[in-house]
Amino acid sequence: MRILILNGPNLNMLGIREPEIYGHETYNDLCSMIQKEANRLDVGVEFYQSNHEGALVDAIQRAYGMMDGIVINPGAYTHTSVALLDAVKAVGIPTVEVHISDPGTREDFRKTSYIRAACVKTIKGHGLSGYVEALRFLCGK
Ligand code: CA2
Predict the structure, then answer these.
(1) Distance 141 CA to ligand 1 centre (A)
(2) Which residue in 47, 100, 119, 125 has the most C-beta neighbors within 10 A?
(3) Model confidence pLDDT, tens digit, residues 15-39
């Protein structure tokens, strides 16, 4: 089993700014935490982060026929991107939407998620552990 871990814009800044919202751990810490759980579950994981919407669409398309699941935190594209919604629908790969914070309790513009409609599950407000939960869910554990 292979799972793609996709992160959108600014998530490479984890641990550097806004620790009160996103915590003190870095993007590399996040990848290490997920890798450790993937080893425990005996599942392959591939990591990709981009600040560019089209690059994220390309990554989702590349997953077609290659990956068994996607964990995605689309960052701010959550609230704007029909292109990411369409890409997840197009590849038909079980996808879990993850948010470190709970966007539903923040500004009104964060309350809409376009990608949610294409996802099998949404995990929000559980910090970085949300990614591990998503991985376990996709592995049926
Ligand atoms: O809570 C989440 O995971 C979000 O997807 C994070 C996005 C935000 O636009 C969504 O509404 C909710 C922002 C990611 C930016 O991450 C940063 C990390 C450190 C410092 C600054 C930004």
Answers:
(1) 27
(2) 100
(3) 998 899 999 999 999 999 999 999 9
| Chain CA centroid to CA 13, Å | 15
Question: What would the two tokens of residue 60 be?
Answer: 């989702």
Query: Could you give phi then psi for residue 128, rounded to 5 degrees?
Result: -70, -25
Distance 123 CA to ligand 1 centre (A): 14
Query: Tokens representing 53?
Result: 């919407």
Residue 38 and residue 3 in contact, taking contact as beta carbons nearer than 8 Å: yes
Sole residue written with tokens 């923040």 = 106
**Measuring from atom 2 of ligand 1, which residue has the nearest CA?**
99
Q: From the CB of 51, is ligand 1 less than 6 Å away?
A: no
Mean pLDDT of 106-126: 98
- Kindly state the tokens that stand for 92: 């038909």
Give the residue-averaged pLDDT of 65-80. Answer: 98
Q: How far apart are CA 110 and CA 104, in angstroms?
A: 6
Burial class (CB in 10 A: 0-12, 13-18, 19+), 107: exposed
Which residues are designated catalytic? 22, 99
Q: Indicate yes or no: pTM above 0.85.
A: yes
